[in-house]
Amino acid sequence: MASEPEKTTIDPREAEHFGAQAEDWWDPKGKSAMLHKLQRARMGYIRDAIDTHWHGDEKALRPLAGKCALDVGCGAGLVAEPLARMGAAVTAIDAAGPSIAVARAHAAEMGLTIDYRACGVETLEGETFDLVTALEVVEHVTDPALFVDALVRRLAPGGLLILSTPNRTPLSRLAIVTLAEGLGHIARGTHDWSKFITPPEMTDLLENEGLIVRDLSGIVADPRLGFVIERDTSINYILRASHL
Q1: Is residue 6 part of a domain?
Q2: Are 234 and 167 in contact (CB under 8 A)?
Q3: Is the residue at 22 inside a domain?
Q4: Would 2 be classed as within a structural domain?
Q5: What is d(CA 235, CA 163) in angstroms, rounded to the nearest whole number?
Q6: Which residue of 70, 103, 191, 226 has the fewest CB atoms within a 10 Å radius of its CB?
């Protein structure tokens, strides 16, 4: 009898879309420019979450020393590389093979050791990590509930999950789809607004898997400072969650 096909949340069209942008990923003025602009706010939040969760020293250079981290939907390594610099043993995965190839080459240039894999999170059965990150990924998968379930299964006891995604509001449709994509700040066709997930919906998904959301904050564009972490979640939000 043939075995059942492995469940996956990977959308091949999404993988192809992002894979086509792989060579441009590290160009701060290229097709991934918006991710570069988000970087300071997202990594600042991640660092604060790490220090809060593990009661660390905010001045420590390697707050993740001795810990293992998983970055899901890693692209070419914009988050995986800083996590490695913070001392983590990093595994980073992405459905787009071309992105993984660029990520490996860039990490080698930077002298960083990162376990990059072209696969979906569902394939990591039996592996667990102290820190799991999934930034701007869940809105691109075929089944958000199955994806969140897989993320939580990868989280070690006492671990920390950090996730960010656009909110599904009229303002996010205007800002992300109509303006950002329409003006070329984000590649056209990157987002399907109907697949955006609201904070209450995301909270329910996480709580159904036994996690509690410890913080949920907005990512807001400030004309003076760039993107900053605020309470306004109307366009994009980032959260940290852990086991009950």
Answers
A1: no
A2: yes
A3: yes
A4: no
A5: 15
A6: 226
Contacts of residue 168, defined as CB under 8 A and 6 or more positions apart, other chains included, come to 193, 194, 196, 197, 198
Distance of alpha carbon 43 from alpha carbon 65, whole angstroms: 17
CB atoms under 10 Å from CB of 244, counted, come to 6
Tell me: pLDDT of 212 over 70.
Answer: yes
Domain tally, the chain:
1
> pLDDT averaged over the chain?
93
Instruction: Please indicate, yes or no, if residue 145 is contained in any of the structural domains.
Output: yes
Cβ–Cβ under 8 Å, residues 72 and 10 = no
> The whole model's pTM is what?
0.94
Residues 202, 145: Cα–Cα separation, whole Å: 9
Residue type for 240, please? R
User: Pairing state of beta strands 129-135 and 68-72?
Assistant: parallel
Boundaries of domain holding 125: 12-243
